[in-house]
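Objective 1b: paired records.
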Amino acid sequence: MASEMETSGRPGRWLRILLFLSLALNLLVVGAAVGFFLNGPPAPRGDRSDPVLPYTRAFDEDQRRELRRGLWRAMRKDAGAMRAGYLADYQRGLELLRQDPFDQAALAALLADQAARGVEVRTRGQEVLVKFLVEMSAEERRAYADRLEAELERMRSRGHGRDKDRDGRQPPKPPRD
């Protein structure tokens, strides 16, 4: 039996849905990275953790503020062009999704370009982070390492407690048939 692709020359519905979801996920990740680098991490809400990397969560508030300034200085000259580029990519993605016939190769190339830009932004952020750590005294780095270790321990304990409710109790298991 021939597939839909073989008979009509068009990708199947599930492939288009998968590509759309892939595009949406890539846009979400890139948008979050750009938002973080341009605006800093979101303010913590209640008992929720900051969705930023454990490395940045381990800094105290003054250090996070200084790190954000360093990130802003590193990104400032390109910020407008980056934002315009991302918006142009999103617009191109919309155009590709609406085309008939659907151009799978063009969308894949667009996603690859967006992923490469995301890696570039992430690499710049990592360079700023390393420079920030290098400029710390040995004592400051040891204190930071202790906070990072505590953050990693919190992450481990949250991972093991996923099956517990808000009060830390194990919820009842549904009856088996």
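Objective 1b, second protein:
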Amino acid sequence: MIQPEAQIHIKNLRLRTYIGFNESEINNKQDVIINAWVRYPAVQAYDTDNVENAVNYRTICKEMIAHTENNRFLLLEKLTAELLALCMTQKNVTFAKIEVAKPHALRFADSVSLTLSANREA
């Protein structure tokens, strides 16, 4: 029997937050672009067509917005790890990956980004 996993992709969530340790970064909010991938078993969701059996991407997105905009971070690693942990708190999630990019971090680059991922242990 096929056991499909759904993959949700929250794509290019554009937010502003305090991130960095230079004086200008400490005193001014910066743009960040967040991409999130979340996987979960989809069988119950599509068999029942019941939202209670799916991962609510709106809830995840709202939590990511609130966490990013209401906190300060010195490192991309900290913000990315905390967003990853937030995604993994959803009970059905088996895998999550978060990429956070700072578009204006380097003069000659489109952005600098960091990606972290996690698997739920069986």
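Helices lie at 23-27, 43-48, 57-69, 76-88. The first strand starts at residue 5 and ends at 19.
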